[in-house]
Design a protein that fits this description.
This protein is α+β, with helices and mostly antiparallel strands and 343 residues long. The protein has one domain: B-lactam Antibiotic, Isopenicillin N Synthase, Chain (Jelly Rolls). It is built from nine helices and 14 strands. The strands form three sheets. Strands 1-2-10-7-12-5-4-3 form an eight-stranded mixed β-sheet. A four-stranded antiparallel β-sheet has the order 6-11-8-9, with no helix packed on it. A two-stranded antiparallel sheet has the order 13-14. The chain is globular, with a radius of gyration of 19 Å. It binds 2-oxoglutaric acid and fe (ii) ion. 2-oxoglutaric acid binds next to strand 5, strand 7, strand 11 and strand 12. The site of fe (ii) ion (FE2) has 3 residues, from loops.
Length: 343
């Protein structure tokens, strides 16, 4: 059996910090050979158990498709505020669609107390975003005027569909890696309300980013099943070392790779067997000459289970010695609770 982990192994990090994220080559999964599919799934699950974050290469999304969605993102954020404000994000945080202007959103980590949230919001994240879901989904999309940016809607939908397709391969691999039927997770993601998010972090005073008085995106975990992230070469993404709380590992740009991580929903579903790891975006590592950090574009794609589905701890993740830590929960109920806290 060929080994598909092409770089840094997850070693025993209980004494020394993890230095970088593992890279998984997904191409053996596409061979269709059961043993190669299983091996790819096992590798994914090992990383999700230990780190919760990895790079995936040879995932099936072509470089041209990646370039195209970054181009659309840049074009969208170049529109005037007046043009972008024709498709505003509604005040209801759970309806995560449309444009959120600079300073609108504060990502908070598991804080549900109104007063505490409003204190945290005094330092909003320095970013603007545009969110898209399934076109005929539960939450309607908001699009800019086609005359302002012709082709944008189709461009986003192309990437949305490709990322959804890719997510289904990852869900198959995940199931095999967890010793479940290959279609186990697919059955909970038949009618997924996935979320495509275009993110733009404008140039920001570097010193403020370094001393933490300004944040691009504060440390948080993602909510859903898994996230597939594209990032540009700016840098600044950091992932908490699973064995050293408060120590963050840089997750630099790897050309063509998707950064893939467990979300809180999957962590709960797995009875905490899979880790949903804290991550944040800080100053890029390279010091600028201007005192301002470079602009950053990134494109997360959040995979969510069907809103009608209720999940219970996965078979094989609980026993008499390790009982279920959670009650069953409905997917929509869980996501709405988390999203409402960010607006
Ligand atoms: O910009 C990034 O790379 C991080 C984005 C992110 O973590 C998120 O939107 O949840
Ligand atoms: Fe995130």
């Amino acid at each position: 059996m060929s080994s598909v982990t092409t770089t840094v192994e997850v070693v025993d990090t209980t004494t020394s910090p993890t230095s970088s994220l593992p890279i998984i080559d997904f191409s053996p999964f596409f061979s269709g050979k059961p043993e190669e599919k299983l091996e790819t799934g096992k590798q994914m699950v090992k990383v999700l158990r230990e780190v919760g974050f990895m790079y995936i290469i040879n995932h099936g999304i072509e470089q041209k498709e990646i370039d195209d969605i970054f181009e659309w993102s840049k074009k969208f954020f170049e529109l005037s505020d007046e043009q972008k404000s024709k498709c505003p994000h509604p005040p209801n945080g759970a309806h995560h669609r449309g444009w959120s202007a600079l300073g609108k959103e504060k990502v908070v980590q598991m804080v549900f107390d109104e007063k505490e949230i409003s204190n945290l919001r005094k330092h909003p994240d320095v970013k603007e975003s545009f969110d898209v879901g399934k076109e005929d989904g539960y939450y309607c999309n908001f699009w800019p005027e086609d005359t302002d940016i012709p082709g944008f809607k189709a461009g986003c939908q192309n990437y949305y569909n490709k990322a959804t397709l890719t997510s289904k391969y990852f869900l198959r691999a995940l199931a095999l890696g967890m010793d479940l039927n290959e279609d186990f997770f697919l059955n909970y993601h038949i009618d997924s309300e996935n979320q495509l998010r275009l993110l733009h972090y404008p140039p920001t005073k570097e010193q403020d980013l370094r001393n933490g008085s300004t944040e691009r995106i504060a440390a948080h975990t993602d909510f859903g099943t898994m996230t597939l992230l594209l990032q540009d070469s700016c840098g600044g993404l950091e992932v908490e070392d699973p064995y050293h709380k408060g120590v963050f590992i840089p997750a630099p740009y790897v050309p063509g790779a998707l950064v893939v991580n467990t979300g809180d929903f999957l962590m709960r579903w797995s009875n905490n067997a899979l880790k949903s790891t804290l991550h944040r975006v800080r100053a890029p590592p390279i010091i600028s000459e201007t005192g301002y950090s470079k602009v950053r574009y990134s494109i997360p794609f959040f995979i969510s289970a069907d809103r009608t589905k209720t999940i219970d701890c996965l078979p094989g993740t609980y026993s008499e010695e390790n009982p279920k830590k959670y009650e069953p929960i409905n997917a929509l109920e869980y996501l709405s609770m988390r999203l409402n806290a960010t607006y």
